Structure formats: structure tokens, C-alpha cells
Amino acid sequence: MRTLLARTAHKAWSSLWDEMERLSPEAGSIRARLRAPLTAGELGGLLLSACAVTFFLLAPMPPQEFLYDYRIYIGTLEGQFTSYYYGYWLLPLFALPGRLPHPLGYLLWIAANIAGVWFAARVFGGRAGRALFSFQMLYMLFFGQFIGLLMGGLALLWWGLANRRWHLAGMGLLIAAAKFHVGIPWGLFLLLLADVRWRDRLRTLLIPLAGVALSLWAYPLWPLQMLRLAQETPPNTWGSITLWQYLGPLVLLLWLPPLLLPMTRGRRFIALAVTTCIALPYFQQADLLGLLVLPIGWVALLGNLGFLLFFLGWEALRVLAIVPLVLYVAIVVPAARSLIQSWRRTQSPHPQESIDAHRPPDSKPHPSPD
Fold this sequence. Notes:
The chain is an all-alpha fold and 370 residues long. Helix content is 63%, strand content 0%. The mean pLDDT is 90. It has one domain. It is built from 21 helices and no strands.
């Protein structure tokens, strides 16, 4: 029985490590995934999303919670920036859905986010079906959140870098960076891990820098205004999963292994992404949808522990820290073990040298027989 369990566990971990290697910067691999037909899981997930949106619109919903985030975005068109904690260069994105009558605006917004989830999963090599069937997906649909477009922006960045389309890569980074604590670190990780020259990285940054500059020209004091609003109405921590809330700055030590240990490009990005989830002062479980579009294998299913919300309340969402924690251990522990084994091999003497070291000084090696 123990042998069977050990083999099953080893097979599960091995499949997870192999899955992570799908995150490749090769343009041919990305192109092939984008051109592949829809899978049964993707079709089922898209159908589930359509049914969920229909149900949300037709059934009586809690007025305070339903479309909470979407109403914040659209409210900026009327000058209402309370609880808006995103880059102001994103404001033009709200113009079209905000001007359409309800529910057409909401449907357009949600369709764009669903497309972003599918596109990101295809580009990064994840399983779109698992993301579309997840608790985090339904959570995004209910609240009208931005995480789908954010991941679509990061996928556009990765696609643009792979295909040498620097302007499109920069546009994707500009969209993703609007959510500072997720889009900026993940975008910079992708930019640094891409197989491009530093000159091309700088060219990619031109559009994001121009977007930020234009937002400061249109709204010169928006960073100061956002800091003031954050002090007056700080973001809620109902679904926060970061370890910072328990250990404080000590969790910054978790950044060292993903940065220093030898590992492949795909595993390093995933390791850095999951460290962002647990080693920053603020990270909501809803943004785990960004992890679910990555090639993380069966770990993506753990995101559905979020359904405990309906039985145990908001505090139950903190258990979702298990998703980044499992991935962190799955990547860092093998990398550390491999490094230690490599170091031991360099320290151990050659077998013949070991024999000579234990031979008495006056003895001579026996002649080998003819």
C-alpha cells in the first residue's frame, strides 16, 4: 500500500513538473496552441460561464455585492474614484461598456475577460478548461472583475516578445500593469525571462511609459489622490491569502529561492508568480485565476476549495493559500535538492582517488593481471 501511494505521489509530482515546461517562449509552440481546436473542457467551461452570467442577470442578486468591481470601474466615467486602485491609463477601457445600456455593457466587459482567460491559457500552455470551471472564474463573473483582461494583457506581452512584436508586447504590459501588485511584477518577470536583447526589452517599455505619461498629463495628481483614498478607504482583506498578514516582512525571505536556485525558465516564472501571491503585503484569492491559466497541472483544481465560502463564510477563502504554497514547494524543493546533489558530486573525490587516499603510504597498487 505504501509503495502504491509513493508511486502515485511521484507520478503526480512528475506530471506537474512536466506540465510546467509547457510555458515556452517559442513562437511556434504558442502559434500551434492558439490554432488548436477548442477542447471539450473549454467548450464546457464557456457554456458554464454563459449559464452563470444568464443566471446572475435573471435571478435576484444581492445588490451590494453583485457587480461590485464593475460598478467601481464604470463609476469613474462620472468622476467617482472611491475604491478605484488601478492605473488611470486604464480609464479609456471603461468608456464603451460604460456608455452602453445595462446589461449590454456588462456582457461586453465579461466577454472580454472570458476571452482574456482563454487567450492566456493558450499562450502560456495552461488548461483553459480548468480555469473556466474554477471558483475564481465564477467569482470574476459575479463581481465583474478585471483579472481576465489582466492575464490577457500578460499573454499579449509574452506573445509579442516571442514574435518580436514589441508594440503589441508593450500594449499588453500597459494593460496588465494597471493592477500594480499583480501586473507589474508578473510583467517584469516575463520581460526579464524572455529570450530577447536588452534593447528589445527597452523598446517594449516605450508604450507603457507613454501610457503612464499621458495619464499624468490628463490627471496630474492621480497617484497622490490614490494614496489619499487608500488611507481613507483601504482595500478589503476578506479573501487575502498572503502570508504577510501573519509573518510580516519575514516572508520576503521566500523570494530568495526562486531568484537564486537553478531552474528552467518556465518553472522560474511560475515560482516567482506564486511568491507574489504569498510574499507581498496584499493579494486576493480572486487573482489566483491568473495562476490557473498557467501550466500548473492538477494544482489548479485546488482553487475550487473557494466553494467553502458558501459553508464557512469569507474567512474560508484564506485556505486558498494552499494553491501557491503547493506550487512553491513543488518547484523550490526539487531545485534545492538538485543543487545540493550537484554540490556533493563536485566535492566527492574520483573513485580511484578515494582508493589511493585510503592506501598506506608505503604500499603500491597491485598489478592488474594480463
